[in-house]
Amino acid sequence: MEKLTKYRQIVQEALLEHGKQKNAYGDVEVETIFDKERDHYQIVYVGWEEKNWIHSCVLHIDIKDGKIWIQWNGTEDDIAADFVEQGVSKEDIVIGFHHPSMRKFTKYAVG
User: Fold this and answer.
1) What domain count does the chain have?
2) Residue 111 lies in a domain
3) How far apart are CA 98 and CA 106, in angstroms?
4) C-alpha span between 6 and 26 (Å, rounded)
């Protein structure tokens, strides 16, 4: 399987799995958003918790230049480690929410 196709499948399956988790409070929907043409993938919470409007990006992943960029991970899961377990090379994972100068201290790619 071509690497890009494999990475898209891994990312989409991961988000679908995370998207099954329902908030324990409020009337909040879990939206799984795939922009397959531009390789942007997100999980967003939308709804109401009592009188408070909830709109929050919980997980945001892009695929850029053949690498998986974890732009935001608001879950408790180590999604990068999950990707490695599924065969993604650490050199093909970028923790985008870490400052570029700090990425060299992670076990993943710098960009």
Assistant:
1) 1
2) no
3) 9
4) 36
Report the candidate in 3, 14, 2 with the shortest Cα–Cα distance to residue 83: 14
Whose structure tokens read 């892009």?
62
Distances 93 to 18, 53, 66, 108 between C-alpha atoms, Å: 19, 33, 9, 6
Whether 61 and 70 have beta carbons less than 8 Å apart is answered as yes
Q: Residue 92's domain is classified under what CATH number?
A: 3.30.310.110
Q: What is the pTM of this model?
A: 0.92
What are 30-49's pLDDT values in tens digits?
999 999 999 999 999 999 98
Could you give the angle at the alpha carbon of 8 between the alpha carbons of 5 and 61, nearest 5°? 150
